[in-house]
Every structure is written in structure tokens, then in C-alpha cells.
Amino acid sequence: MHTRRIGDVEVSAVGLGAMPMSIEGRPDTARSLATLHAALDAGVTLIDTADAYHMGADEVGHNETLVAKALASHERGGDVLVATKGGHLRPGDGSWTLDGSPAHLRSACEASLRRLGVEAIGLYQFHRPDPRIPYAESVGALRELLDEGKIRMAGISNADPDQIRQADEILGGRLVSVQNQFSPVFRSSEPELRLCDELGIAFLPWGPFGGISRAGELATAHAPFGRIAQAHGVSAHQVCLAWMLAKSPVVVPIPGASRPESIRDSVRAADLVLTPEEIAELDAA
């Protein structure tokens, strides 16, 4: 598989977003493990998770535990960079809340360490800015975790350009990733993508197909993606990921999947070469 870099780590050009395996509508454990193993078999070496990917309040870290189980039971599990996040919470009533306090981020990181069964988390990301807490304090907590060796690399998620610059400064030039929403239907993160390209920071688009509820409508809701997919004899999802990969060498999409077939299809996007004319058409769609 083609590769890209996050910090000093080489990863597959297409990663796996494991969230759909733990939230509402999730599959049973057997299918989730089969999906994670299919990703590893296909050459995926980046898996994205978070402590907030769960449903009930009594199962915080469900997705991290699932990922850890899959990696421990596969011969290639040790080759994977696990990216997890802290600072976003689910009380158990279907809502999402925030806690970007340094105390919470530290305790969340330590809990993630235990669930993942590692001495240091490969990539730890501040999940979402908390308006009650100065951003510098939240990122400062990541710096401390990085300096203490509890995390190997630090990233941020759902950030704007000013926050990206601020985080990189606070981390002493050690910010390695920005994970923002980006898809054919949600393109407002173009400035963040361009900034990451300029700074050499990995940009990880989440929800690349427009979100779980819209993923199946990609070919029809965005006709050029469907038309170009038909011309190449591939899925519109492959075209979408190939379009993102063509934007910059710092882009590493993390499509969600809950079936082995889905991640196998997504991985093939790394081999799909779009013409400049096709890229321009998709940009204008």
C-alpha cells in the first residue's frame, strides 16, 4: 500500500476510523473484529479511535478496548499507529459534552493507556476545543504528556488555523496532526488543509463521505463523484478518497467502516489515479 507520514511514523495512505463500531447502530463484536482484521490484512497501519466512542455512560472507551482486542489477536497488530483522543465526552443520554481541562485530559489519557494496553500512546489528540477552558491550557496538557513520555506524538482535532498555529507553538513545533471534518459536502476546512500542507502537518479528514447517514448517498448527491467512479469502474467512495489524497501529500483520510467490505474498498483508493481534469471537476462540484 502507498504510505504517508505522521510525524516520524510511516502509515498507510488510507487509515480506518473505528467509531462506527461503537456508537448507535454498531455491529456485533464479531463483525467489528472481522472489520478491524480485514483492515490489517489490507495493509492499514493507522486506526483512529477515541474514549468517547461508545453509547452508555458505563462503557467509556468501548472503541479503544475493541481496537486493542483486535490488534492483540492479529499478527500485524504491532505495526499499527493507534490515534486516540480525549476532551469529548458522552454522558450516556446520546448527547456530547466537552472537558478540555488539563486535569481531565491527563486522567483521560491515563485511562486510554490502560485500555489500549500500551506504555505510551502513539498519537494522542485533543478532541474538540472547550470554550470554558483557554485553548493554551488544553494544549499545554498535551505538551506535558508528550514531555513525560505518556504519548509519543500530539495532535488536535476540530481546530481552526489560529488554533493550529497556537498549538504548534505551545508544543514547540511538535504538532504532528490535525483531524478535521472534510468531505464533498463539508469543505470549510480547506484553509486548515492548506495550512497543514504549508507546515508539513498531517491532515486527517474525518467523515470523508459526509458522515455515517450520508455515506450511501455520495454517488447520487454529488453527481461528478458518481460519474467519475463509473468511468473508472470503482465506487464513488474510492473516488472521494483519491480526490482527497491528490490534494496534498499531508492528507491521510480515515473513512469509517463497520464491515470488512467497506474498508477493503476504501483502501483501494490509494491506487486510484485521477486525471487533473477529473480533480478539477470534483473540486468544482
TrEMBL record:
Span of domain NADP-dependent oxidoreductase: 14-284
Chain segments annotated as transmembrane: none
Pfam family, one: Aldo_ket_red
GO molecular function: oxidoreductase activity
Domain of life: Bacteria
Keyword annotations of the record: Oxidoreductase
Protein's UniProt name: Aryl-alcohol dehydrogenase-like predicted oxidoreductase
Provenance organism: Streptomyces calvus
Taxonomic placement: Bacteria, Bacillati, Actinomycetota, Actinomycetes, Kitasatosporales
